[in-house]
Specification:
The structure holds two protein chains of two kinds.
Chain A (H helix, E strand, L loop, with lengths): L10 E4 L1 E5 L2 E5 L1 E8 L2 E9 L6 E4 H6 L8 E7 L2 E14 L2 E10 L7 E2 L4 H4 L1 E5 L4 E5 L3
Parallel strand pairs in A: 5-10, 6-9
Antiparallel strand pairs in A: 1-12, 2-3, 4-5, 4-8, 7-8, 8-9, 11-12
Chain B lengths: L4 E2 L7 E4 L2 E4 L8 E2 L11 H6 L2 E5 L4 E5 L9 E3 L2 H7 L20 H9 L1 H4 L6 E5 L2 E6 L2 H10 L6 E4 L11
Parallel strand pairs in B: 4-7
Antiparallel strand pairs in B: 1-7, 2-3, 5-6, 8-9, 8-10
The chains are: A mainly beta, B alpha+beta.
């Protein structure tokens, strides 16, 4: 008989519908805090299992007052092809837990801020139940 | 300091927590994190049990980022010059967050207010809004300007949310 692993989750979040040109969609948006030195901003970011890295709009780096010379330009692949983005190791706080995580900043005001797998998925686990419009988060392994 | 050991600079901070002044200074006597072992060096047993020490492990740089309520902690990284050089790609200063930044508000109040006030927010479609509690603090198309305005109004950690349009474009990440 196969063993069954039960996972417990500490935090639950609602998935709110969003209207798009192709119909209603659901995005798991997580409130997070981004920190650089004394600057802190809270935003919502979409938990994106398909993204290698967490990627935010470049304006967020500007609002956090990260010096330009500390941002490292790199190439990334998006659905539209290759693009430039700027890397920086940022402190991200989720539910009181701070994680230093390599993030990319993209100069595109339409970009939905996303939490990708690198570091984030090492430190926390997620479960998605889109059918009941909820997702769950826990820091336990 | 042992040869091949790099101690990264840690910013010292003093903050108040529960009416107790806590000195966030660090010494070099407690913990050593080795990177050349089979075990995951990111989290030591002590750190696992305390749950208060988290690290980011990146391909090109290791960052050992610490926060603790104890009065002294140590971060010593065994490293070599090559790793040190790589770390300089991003600058090697480690920021130790003040305690107040560790606790993230759930923002449940703001999220519920946003969910239940779509009629109010209709006027701000496509804009960034800063919401604090059940109050709309600032809005506009320029994220930096909106955040700056909120801070001038006394909101030191603005919660900025982009109000969706009636019809958004779908995202294929």
């Amino acid at each position: 008989m196969p063993s069954i692993t039960k996972l417990d989750f500490e935090h639950s979040y609602k998935i709110s519908p969003l209207n798009t040109l192709q119909g209603s969609t659901l995005r798991p948006m997580l409130p997070i805090r981004l920190c650089y030195q004394n600057e802190q901003i809270d935003i919502n970011a979409m938990v994106d299992t398909g993204a290698d890295l967490s990627m935010f709009q470049l304006d967020i780096a500007r609002a956090l007052k990260i010096p330009d010379d500390q941002l490292r330009k790199e190439k990334f692949i998006l659905a539209t092809g290759k693009t430039d983005a700027w890397l920086f190791p940022l402190d991200i706080v989720v539910q009181g837990v701070q994680i230093n995580c390599r993030c990319a900043f993209i100069d595109n005001p339409d970009w939905p801020n996303v939490l990708g797998r690198e570091t984030i998925f090492d430190k926390m686990k997620f479960a998605f139940r889109q059918g009941v419009r909820q997702f769950y988060l826990s820091f336990s392994p | 300091m042992a040869p091949g050991t790099l101690t990264l600079p840690i910013r010292k901070q003093t903050t108040n927590y529960a009416d107790e002044a806590i000195d966030y200074s660090y010494n070099t006597t407690t913990a050593a994190v080795s990177k050349n072992t089979e075990e995951d060096p990111a989290v030591s047993n002590t750190e696992k049990s305390s749950g208060e020490f988290f690290t980011g492990d990146m391909n090109s740089r290791r960052i050992y980022n610490a926060f603790s309520k104890s009065k002294t902690d140590t971060i010593t990284i065994e490293d070599n010059q090559e790793e040190q050089d790589k770390s300089n790609l991003f600058g090697s200063e480690i920021f130790v967050a003040p305690l107040e930044s560790i606790t993230t508000p759930s923002r449940n109040v703001e999220m519920e207010w946003i969910d239940s006030h779509s009629d109010v927010l209709k006027a701000y479609q496509g804009q960034w809004v800063v919401v604090e509690g059940s109050k709309l603090i600032a809005h506009g198309n320029d994220f930096v300007a909106v955040v700056t305005e909120a801070k001038t109004k006394g909101i030191m950690i603005p919660y900025a949310v982009k109000v969706p349009m009636d019809i958004e474009l779908p995202f294929i990440g």
